[in-house]
Design brief:
Low-confidence stretches: none
Oligomer: single chain
CATH superfamily of the largest domain: 2-enoyl-CoA Hydratase, Chain A, domain 1
Strand order of the largest sheet: 1-2-3-5-7-10
Order of helices and strands: EEHEEHEEHEEHHEHEHHHH
Shape: globular
Largest sheet: 6 strands, mixed
CATH class of the largest domain: Alpha Beta
Mean pLDDT: 96
Structural class: alpha/beta
Helix content: 40-55%
Number of strands: 10
Distance between the termini: 27 Å
Number of domains: 2
Number of helices: 10
CATH topology of the largest domain: 2-enoyl-CoA Hydratase, Chain A, domain 1
Radius of gyration: 19 Å
Length: 257
């Protein structure tokens, strides 16, 4: 879409791809982050989409994080508002979201990645939150990292500001898959294709159920998820089609309704 200066936005074959394009380090300044907010609003309204993938142009860096110049006292309030707007949009995005890290993700770049539902990366990717070395801390990572990995390791990364490699990030649960750099684009595409063959409405309601259950006591979570299943999902054409196709031993034909 020509309306974006620092992003490449595409929607094709049920996949929306947003690629950050501000070489060489894809630093997130306020202008770029405002574009990301607009792009996410467009993607959320795309009724042809089943998956959102966020990636970046270049071969070494997904994003080095938020521009340090936007952390100054005269800009920090606007910076936080715009940056956290991106993360808030990702948290309520109705469809599966995948961050495809073509290179290292640091600071706000790492926060952007782990705010997605799933993350894949090149084998030479490094991740981390070096904010503590500048005398500040990463608000989003302070919330999400302890939920994703063992607390002592999250403490080490957030309080020490060090970086970890892709294999360690995979072992800790920050990444879903690690792929060779030479085949990364193809491998990332294969990863998202497992979702593209499914019903859009089933993806939406499943993600809604996961969110609804998160953090709640079991019986409260179960009641809420049951309501989604019985009152919403089972009234869709695709739920009936999927069950019928299984019983009739044929491939389902989704209408995404």
């Amino acid at each position: 879409m020509s309306e974006f200066k620092f992003l490449e936005y595409t929607s094709a074959d049920a996949l929306v791809t947003i690629a950050i394009n501000r070489p060489p380090y894809n630093v997130l300044d306020i202008v770029l982050m405002e574009e990301l907010n607009r792009a996410l609003d467009i993607a959320a309204k795309d009724e042809s989409a089943k998956v959102l993938m966020i990636t970046a142009k270049g071969e070494k860096t997904f994003s080095a994080g938020v521009d340090v110049m936007d952390h100054t006292p005269d800009k920090v309030v606007q910076m936080i508002e715009v940056f956290h707007g991106i993360l808030k949009r990702l948290m309520v995005f109705p469809l599966p979201t995948v961050a495809a890290l073509n290179g290292s993700a640091m600071g706000g770049g790492c926060e952007l990645a782990i705010a997605c539902d799933m993350v894949v990366a090149t084998e030479d990717t490094k991740l981390g939150q070096p904010e503590i070395k500048l005398g500040v801390f990463p608000p989003i990572a302070a919330i999400l990292m302890p939920k994703t990995m063992p607390l002592p390791k999250a403490m080490e990364l957030l309080l020490g500001g060090g970086l970890i490699g892709a294999q360690e990030a995979l072992n800790l649960g920050l990444l879903n898959k690690v792929f060779p750099r030479a085949t990364f684009a193809q491998d990332a595409r294969v990863f998202v294709e497992q979702f593209l063959s499914l019903s859009r409405v089933a993806l939406i309601y499943t993600k809604r159920a996961i969110r609804e259950a998160s953090g709640k006591p079991f019986f409260e979570a179960l009641f809420n998820v049951e309501q989604i299943y019985l009152k919403e999902l089972m009234s869709t054409a695709d739920a009936i089609e999927g069950l019928n196709a299984f019983m009739e031993k044929r491939k389902p034909v989704w209408t995404n309704k």
